[in-house]
Amino acid sequence: MGLIHEDRLFPADPTTRAIARRLYETVKDLPIVSPHGHTDPRWFAENEPFPDPARLFVIPDHYVTRMLYSQGVRLEELGIATRDGSPTEADPRRIWRRFAENYHLFRGTPSRMWLDHSFSTLFGLETRLGAETADLYYDTIADHLARDDYRPRALFERFRIEVIATTESPLDPLTWHGQIRASGWSGRVITAYRPDPVCDPDFAGFHDNVRQLGALTGCDTGTWSGYLEAHRRRRAFFKSFGATSTDHGHPTARTADLSRADAEALHARVMAGAVSAQDAELYRAQCLTEMAGMSLEDGLVMQIHPGSWRNHNPLLFDRFGRDMGADIPSRTDYVGALKPLLDRYGNEPALTVIVFTLDETTYSRELAPLAGHYPALRIGPAWWFFDSPEGMKRYREMVTETAGFYNTVGFNDDTRAFTSIPARHDVSRRVDCGYLAGLVASHRLDEDEAFVVARDLAYDLARKAYKLD
Ligand SMILES: [Zn+2]
Question: How many CB atoms lie within 10 A of CB 101?
Answer without folding.
Answer: 15
